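Retry 2 of 3 after timeout on previous attempt. Resubmitting structure tokens to design endpoint.
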């Protein structure tokens, strides 16, 4: 198990595969369930307990993702050391049942519900297959003022088609894939965005809904930028394509970049030029022609690539290549 720094959102990982089979259940219960999650865990369907999990944390916010074999979890109220909320999300695997006090609900794939530490609760898998899940621990003092009525929201299903929930889950996926840690400024922004999106999904106050619009825009832009990075080599990447994938209008995409002080075209061009520059300076790509590098970075016109590269770096791609080779 690897430790994480709660100041930078870096990941802590746990897998039962790291232990001998006979020790896996006890290792999970001791290291994860009782210590971190304050849960009493029992395997279901006579299946051995198997878990692969990642944990990330910032002050007031925790993100837990992974895959679990069917289990029954009981919240250890007497051992709870906080009264935070936990947003439980069933990603895949047949769903689960959630009990909070006297309220019980069933979650199907893509659905979520709000739970609270300090309230008697149980969760158990609804099928005999492993489940992919996401849990968000949210500070009560930060989230409750954003909610219209948290007590009415406990153990109430949030539909998979809820726009705020979809955006929140997409944002969390991006955060969970981040390799680098966060600066204090970015960490503070992440906390705000997640809390606002969670409040919208659960049921925000009128003031909270208005305030959360800024976080929605920031989360949308983060998701769009991640999408661009993932498809940078596609020369057909366009605002229209992105808008269709993110279920918004092309004008909305343009507006997001305007609010960020740039344009879609400038952002994509800068990313492609920087990626090309890194490849040109990397000795591993010395056998690649400049045209191959240009096309691999999403440029469809070599002349345009050469012109824009020289304007951006005040040097031609050939100049950079000669510098790397150590030739005049």
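Retry 2 succeeded. Sequence:
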């Amino acid at each position: 198990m690897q430790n994480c720094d709660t100041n930078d959102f870096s990941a802590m990982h746990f897998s039962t595969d790291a232990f001998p089979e006979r020790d896996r259940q006890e290792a999970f219960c001791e290291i994860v369930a009782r210590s971190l999650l304050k849960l009493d865990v029992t395997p279901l369907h006579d299946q051995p307990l198997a878990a692969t999990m990642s944990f990330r944390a910032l002050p007031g916010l925790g993100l837990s993702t992974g895959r679990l074999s069917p289990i029954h979890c009981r919240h250890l109220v007497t051992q709870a050391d906080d009264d935070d909320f936990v947003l439980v999300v069933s990603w895949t695997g047949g769903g689960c049942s959630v009990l909070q006090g006297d309220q019980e609900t069933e979650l199907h794939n893509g659905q979520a519900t709000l739970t609270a530490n300090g309230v008697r609760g149980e969760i158990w898998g609804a099928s005999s297959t492993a489940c992919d899940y996401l849990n968000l621990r949210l500070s009560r003092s930060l989230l409750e003022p954003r909610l219209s009525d948290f007590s009415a929201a406990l153990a109430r299903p949030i539909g998979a088609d809820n726009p705020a929930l979809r955006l929140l889950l997409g944002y969390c996926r991006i955060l969970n894939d981040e390799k680098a840690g966060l600066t204090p400024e970015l960490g503070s922004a992440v906390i705000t965005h997640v809390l606002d999106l969670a409040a919208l999904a659960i049921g925000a106050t009128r003031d909270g809904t208005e305030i959360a619009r800024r976080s929605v825009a920031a989360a949308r832009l983060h998701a769009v930028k991640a999408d661009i990075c993932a498809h940078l080599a596609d020369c057909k990447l366009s605002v229209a394509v992105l808008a269709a994938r993110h279920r918004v209008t092309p004008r909305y995409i343009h507006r997001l970049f305007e609010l960020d002080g740039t344009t879609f075209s400038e952002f994509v061009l800068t990313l492609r030029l920087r990626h090309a520059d890194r490849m040109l300076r990397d000795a591993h790509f010395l056998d690649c022609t400049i045209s191959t590098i240009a096309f691999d970075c999403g440029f469809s016109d070599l002349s345009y690539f050469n012109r824009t590269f020289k304007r951006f770096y005040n040097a031609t791609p050939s100049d950079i290549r000669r510098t790397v080779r150590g030739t005049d």
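Attempt log closed. The chain is about 45% helix and 20% strand.
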